[in-house]
UniProtKB/TrEMBL annotation:
<dbReference type="Pfam" id="PF08818">
    <property type="entry name" value="DUF1801"/>
</dbReference>
<dbReference type="GO" id="GO:0000166">
    <property type="term" value="F:nucleotide binding"/>
</dbReference>
<dbReference type="InterPro" id="IPR010995">
    <property type="entry name" value="DNA_repair_Rad51/TF_NusA_a-hlx"/>
</dbReference>
<dbReference type="InterPro" id="IPR014922">
    <property type="entry name" value="YdhG-like"/>
</dbReference>
<dbReference type="Pfam" id="PF14520">
    <property type="entry name" value="HHH_5"/>
</dbReference>
<feature type="domain" description="YdhG-like">
    <location>
        <begin position="111"/>
        <end position="208"/>
    </location>
</feature>
<protein>
    <recommendedName>
        <fullName>YdhG-like domain-containing protein</fullName>
    </recommendedName>
</protein>
Amino acid sequence: MSTSFESIPGVTISARKALSTAGFKDLESLAGTNYEEVAGLPGIGARTLERLQAALVEKRMSFGGEVPEAEQRTATWTTLDSAAPETTETLESPEHFIQNLDSPRRITHGQLLLEIFNRATGQEPYVAGSSIVGYGRVHYRYATGREGITIRVGFSPRKAKISLYGLTSAPASQELLKKLGKHSAGVSCLYINKPEDVDLEVLEEMIRISWEAEPGEC
């Protein structure tokens, strides 16, 4: 199940209408979208942008481009058993999801990433939201009381760029990023144009160390 804009506190009816008119059907569809593009929509103010970005970050996603620094919030992260309920998990298999992408190029990229993530984590993947292949589950709780469940690591073979989640904050990840190849970074995710642009052995190592790190580190 995807994350509706209605479920995000403080996102007004006018803001939801503007997002829908612009083609954004849920929170996950905003991941990787340039911040300035969304900021230019009518009815989308600074507070709404901050709330949307905070909701994205909680799900290991982010706007693309230059995102203004928001007030820092700390959270407690706890690894969940694989059988724990996942509010955004769907019944569709990752293999079926990837096979039904809209172009041979995206299918090939999705299959390659599925193989790499499967090998690096040793876990069974699942489809979260409308377009994310996730591995593992973590529960987060902020001091404000906001809490939820999200993926531990994962990827999304989106049309514009491929999004890679949960790989940027483990202690060793910054050194590996220097060796990764062509990419851009959001608050808690990486974006690549295609797998051929990066060193796949480095990517697999980043996935492995992020999976093995404590939840609060990734």
